[in-house]
């Protein structure tokens, strides 16, 4: 793992959260996009070499909606940048971590992603990210 790529924050009101983080960080998000496969809207703010990702559910059955119903707003996941997501997935499986998928899938911000189940990571949802070249 190379570094913390971003911290994902689940929000109920995308517009209000973007306004809050604009005030907090003194900058607009550099990117917003919809990830249809996850039924989520995202926006990204740069903070040094890392990013903050805001996530808003687009449907009541999306993973973010379920998270918000159970936990409320707040930190949803920590994402780590990797050079080879398949090799890192295999390494983590061999170390006993439970992955939420067997293959990486396209995610936001031009990344391939895979998640590590929070039950195998002290309650923290971990995302692996590899830039799509």
Automatic annotation (TrEMBL):
Family: Belongs to the methylmalonyl-CoA epimerase family.
Keyword Metal-binding attributed: yes
Keyword annotations from UniProtKB, A to Z: Isomerase, Metal-binding
Biological process terms in GO annotation: L-methylmalonyl-CoA metabolic process
Native source organism of the sequence: Adhaeribacter rhizoryzae
Record domain VOC: where: 3-131
InterPro entries: Glyas_Bleomycin-R_OHBP_Dase, MeMalonyl-CoA_epimerase, MMCE/EMCE_epimerase, VOC_core
EC number assigned by the record: 5.1.99.1
CDD domains in UniProt: MMCE
EC primary class: isomerase
Xref: SUPFAM superfamilies: Glyoxalase/Bleomycin resistance protein/Dihydroxybiphenyl dioxygenase
An MF annotation (GO) of this entry: methylmalonyl-CoA epimerase activity
Domain of life, per lineage: Bacteria
Lineage, opening ranks: Bacteria, Pseudomonadati, Bacteroidota, Cytophagia, Cytophagales
Protein name as it appears in the record: Methylmalonyl-CoA epimerase
């Amino acid at each position: 793992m190379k570094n913390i790529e971003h911290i994902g924050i689940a929000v109920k009101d995308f517009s209000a959260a973007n306004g809050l983080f604009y005030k907090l960080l003194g900058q607009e998000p550099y990117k917003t996009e919809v990830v249809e496969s996850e039924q989520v809207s995202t926006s990204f703010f740069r903070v040094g070499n890392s990013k903050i990702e805001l996530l808003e559910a687009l449907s009541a059955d999306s993973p973010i909606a379920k998270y918000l119903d159970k936990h409320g707003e707040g930190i949803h996941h920590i994402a780590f940048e990797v050079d080879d997501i398949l090799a890192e997935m295999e390494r983590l499986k061999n170390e006993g971590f439970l992955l939420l998928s067997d293959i990486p899938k396209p995610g936001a911000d031009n990344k391939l992603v895979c998640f590590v189940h929070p039950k195998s990571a002290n309650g923290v949802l971990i995302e692996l990210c590899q830039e799509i070249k």
